[in-house]
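Both lines are quoted verbatim for reference:

——
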Amino acid sequence: MQTDTIPASTSLGASLVITTYNSPDRLALVLDSVRDLSPLPAEVIIADDGSTEETRILIESYAKDFPCPLRHIWQEDKGFRVSISRNKGIKAATQDYIITIDGDMILDPHFIADHLRFAKRGVVLQGSRTGLSDKVSQEILAAKAQAPQQSTAYRLAFAHKKAKSHRLAFMAYLANLRSTTARYLRKSPYLKPVVRTCNMSFYKSDWEKLGGFDEGYTGWGRDDTDFVARLLLQGGKLKRVTFSAVAYHIHHESNINPQALAINDKRYLAMLKSHGITYPPPLPNPSDVSLVITTYNSPDRLALVLDSVRDLSPLPAEVIIADDGSTEETRILIESYAKHFPCPLRHIWQEDKGFRASASRNKGITAAKEAYIILIDGDMILDSHFIADHLRFAKSGFCLGGSRTMLCENTTKEILAKRTSGDTSAYKEGFKYKSWKAYRCTLLAWIIYLCSQKSAKSFTKSVKANVGSCNMSFYKADFEKIGGFNERFTGHGSEDWEFVARFLFAGGRSARLKFCAVGYHIHHPTRPQDRANANYQLYLETLRTHLGTLPKDAKRA
C-alpha cells in the first residue's frame, strides 16, 4: 500500500510524554515500539501517577540502552490524578514540541514523523487510535511474557489494521484541512474529533500559555477536552491527523467511574460558562439513567448483552439485572462482571415460581436509583449509541419503544461460540446483520417518532400497542403513577401491551424509535405459549374497563 513519502521536519525536536500507572507489561510493549521509531523523539518521559517498584525497575532496565534519553517522573499514588502527572512530565520536557500518549499505545514506526509533519503553533493534533480486541491484546502480552528479552512482540498489533490504520498521504492531508474552532463550542461542549490525550501533540509554549492541564480534574474524563477547549477559546484550533500518526490501543478494563465523570462534566461546563458559553440542560442525562435488564437462566446470552453494555457511549448511571429466578450460574456470571464493570452493576433476584417477568421487572425498577428507566431483555445486544438515542427523545409522560433487529439462529450460534472461546467483542458480529431499520438516521428517526405517537384514543381503533418491553424507556415517576407492570400476568405475552395501555389511559403517550436506539435480538427457542390466551384476556379486560367496549380488531389480534 502506498504510504506517505513527504519528509517530516527534522529541525523540530519532540518530547514524547507517556502516562502510566501500574501496567508494566503494557508499558514494556510501548517502549519496544518507541525504540523502533524512525525518527526517534529527542527524549522519552514516563509520567507516572504513582506506580509501584515494578514499574520503576522496568524503566531503569530500558533506560540503560535506550536509543534516546528515557526519564521517569513519578508522583505519589493519591488516586487517579493523571492531569497532575502529565503536567509534571511536560514541565520536565526539554523540547519545543510535545507528543502525549498513554502507556498502552503501541506506535507505528512513523509516529513521530507524522505528528511533526503537521505541527503548527496554536494547533492541537489528534492522532489515529486503533483499538485492539481483548483476545489480540492477550496474545501480544503473552508473546512478550514468554520472551521478555525479545522486543518484537508489539509488532503483532500491526496485523490488525483497520481502515484508518493505513498511512495514506492524500487522505491524511484532506483530514488535516478541517479544523475545529471555538465556534463549535457554541453548538456542543463535546468536541469533534473526539479529544484523547492517548495520542495528541502540541507546542509546549501553547501548553504554558494555558497553564497546562487543569489539575482540578480527578478520575477519568474531560481533562483533555477542557485543555483543548481552553486553547480554542484563545483562538487555537483542533485538527485530526487520520490515516497517519497511528497508535494501537492495548485492551484493558474501563477506567470510567460514572460518579467521578459526572463531577468532571460539571467542572468542564463551569469552565465554559465562565467564558459565556452555556447550554440548555439535557433532561435526562446519562447520570439519570438506570438500565434494567430482565433475565432467566441464559447466562451465555446475558454475557453478550453485558459486553455490549460495557462499550456504550455514554454509559447509564447503573445497570440492574432483574432476575426471574435463575440458578447459581447466572449469579456467578454477574458477580464476575461487577468486579470491573464501568458503572454499578446490581443483581435483583426473585425465587423461581414460574414465568413472572412482570414481578421481576417491578422489583428491578423499584430498586433503581435514577429518574429515567431504560428496560431491555437479557438477550438484546445494544448499539453503542443506545443510551444516547433513548435520551434524545425522552420526555415526561412518554413511553418509548426502540428498534429491534432479529438475529437468525445460525448467526446466534456463531456469536455464542466466539464468546464461549473468550472473545468479549463477539457481540459486535451481530452488527454485520443490520436490517433496514437498524441504520441510524436522525431525520428518519424524528419523522417516525412524530408520526407514531399514540394516546388513549388510539385504542378505540386498534387493540395493538406500539411498544414492547424488550426495548422500552420511560420516567420512573410515570411507572410509579400507574403502579408498574400488572403482576397478575404470568407466563409469556401481553403484559407489556397492558402496561402501555394503562400508561396511555393515565394521560401519557407512546412513540416508536426507529433508525435509532437499536437492539439486536439474540435468537432463542419460542417461549411456552400456555398462558398467552389468558394473558390476552387480562389485557382486553383493562381495555374494556377504560373504554367500556373493545376495539373492532380485538377478536382478530
